[in-house]
User: Fold Small conserved membrane protein from Limosilactobacillus urinaemulieris.
Amino acid sequence: MNESKFISWLGRIASIIAILMYVSYIAQIYNNLHGNYAAPLQPFVAGVNCTLWSIYAYFKKDRDWPVFWANFPGIFFSFATFLTCFPW
Assistant:
């Protein structure tokens, strides 16, 4: 396997793992909505991080799609988790 093909596959696999990492917030969102509130700092910082990486990947001259798609779902899942950490 040549280097270019390896990097392409690595980007895809890393993107899938990152998306799964943010989808795993669903369990915490469920717990938060049922009164088992978690600390809000980590999902808030993750949401800011994902937002910044997504902006970076999208607006750079040669768009970095693996970085964008790895972080874009994290924006929504992280901030949803953050917002459900409070007993509104």
